[in-house]
Amino acid sequence: MRETLLFVLLTGLITLARADDCQALNFGHGSVVCACNATYCDSVGRTGLPDPGQFLSYVSSKSGSRLVKTQGQFQKNSTAAALRITLNPSQKYQRIKGFGGAMTDAAAMNILSLSSGAQDQLLRQYFSTDGIEYRFVRVPMASCDFSTRLYTYADTPEDYDLQNFTLAEEDIHMKIPLLQRAQALSAEPLNLLASAWSAPAWLKTNGALIGKGSLKGKPGGKEHKTWAQYYIKFLEEYGKHNISFWGLTSGNEPTAGEMTNYSFQALGFTAETQRDWIALDLGPGLHSSSFPQTRLMILDDNRLLLPHWAKVVLSDIQAAHYVHGIGFHWYLNNIAPPGITLTTTHHLYPEYFLFSTEACAGWNPLDRGVRLGSWDRAEDYAHDIIQDLNNFVTGWTDWNLALNQDGGPNWVKNFVDSPIIVDSSKDVFYKQPTFYSMAHFSKFLWEGSQRVGVSFSKHTSLEVSSYIRPDASAVLIILNRSEEEVQFEVWDQTLGFLPGSAPPHSILTLLWSRH
């Protein structure tokens, strides 16, 4: 007790006890998962602002902390910490759109494999005000590898008018009901984002949904027009279920079907053919449809293709007129520095937003599949998100919302990891460390939050990103990937000095009112 009191006196931090702590399980992968069932799940709860002059700190760490909340006091005088982090609100950068994950067929199947109580619990964890408040959901248009079968919505050959276009059972009985439930839990409208993996086989040069193949004919021709109308039909059919889409991408990973003989669904485009299809078919089609406000993102492929892909598409005035943003994936990021790819693209085309549309752990063949409790993967997420946000990215979307313990189902056994892993045999789900990585951003960076400048009194291993939210409160997110605890102070000229400490291998979110 004396040690606890001494810690409080020295740091000014008070840990706020919670009745809903993580039910930790250790599977031997470096840290713990939090187990949840129909009647119990840890929850961060609602995050109000502390009183003026106070700050809140939320920490998750390799040692097992999960969004542990403490409260402290700004000080008038420096704490004499070796590292001072200075907030520079006058340096203003991009505004945040939000964070989320994907409602794939596999995710929907896994969620629905649980009892109704556990399903509700899982959806609350992602979407409710007591959960981590995801605002974005990516929805594949028809099947992808995270399906259990191959299908599109227009598999009738030569149906150029799409008279036989129909949503699948996976949409009607799985994805749509879950999206409706997620929306009902969310305090704000969810932003849905649609991506197609493949056109119907009869529209493609290789006559198959998989492998190397592109649309028959040329942009402006009947196949390209039909493929554009397919997008509009999809929006119409979902609209009949009272589900509207914030945005679309021009197609998932276009280089997969263009440059490689992919083992699962793909549709090849070069930057040039994507440009011309948007200019002649998809752009005008959307513009003249009931969905002219739907945001269109190009690329939806690895960021190492930037800025080249953006230059090709956006230097064409016709195509550029219909485009709103640039979507990209995180795979192979280690060979594509963000300054060269993202910041260069932003400076070339500042009016087009940058948005990370897909990421997952466990995709690498050297470290494939589910790792229950992996803290390394949590750090990979936080590192990538901070790096992206510090290079003008406006949002970050995870891949599958939930997978089974194999990392599927996936019809080509392309198993990966997910922030939530479901064990339907026990009617439980496990919240991975990556879930809490996402939480440190999605819970605190509201839409409209603006990244601002931050500077350091000396070189540091800490990775930091800072924001002013629409209510003028400040958020600072800090990743410590080192083995050492790092003491620091934050200098906010309106309030003074915030005394802080980043434990070894931890993610920290600091929140305070600047009024």
UniProtKB/TrEMBL annotation:
Name of the protein this chain belongs to: Glucosylceramidase
Matching entries from Gene3D superfamilies are given as:
Glycosidases
Q: What is the primary gene name for this protein?
A: gba1
The top EC class, named as a word, is: hydrolase
The terms describing its cellular component in GO are: lysosomal membrane
Do the record's keywords include Lipid metabolism?
Answer: yes
Its localization reads: Lysosome membrane
Q: Where is it mainly found?
A: membrane
Q: Which GO terms describe its biological process?
A: autophagy; cholesterol metabolic process; glucosylceramide catabolic process; lysosome organization; negative regulation of macromolecule metabolic process; protein catabolic process; regulation of macroautophagy; regulation of membrane potential
Q: Which reaction does it catalyse?
A: a beta-D-glucosyl-(1<->1')-N-acylsphing-4-enine + cholesterol = cholesteryl 3-beta-D-glucoside + an N-acylsphing-4-enine; cholesteryl 3-beta-D-glucoside + H2O = cholesterol + D-glucose; a beta-D-galactosyl-(1<->1')-N-acylsphing-4-enine + cholesterol = cholesteryl 3-beta-D-galactoside + an N-acylsphing-4-enine; beta-D-glucosyl-N-dodecanoylsphing-4-enine + cholesterol = N-dodecanoylsphing-4-enine + cholesteryl 3-beta-D-glucoside
The scientific name of the source species is Carassius auratus (Goldfish)
* Keywords (A to Z) from UniProt: Glycosidase, Hydrolase, Lipid metabolism, Signal, Sphingolipid metabolism
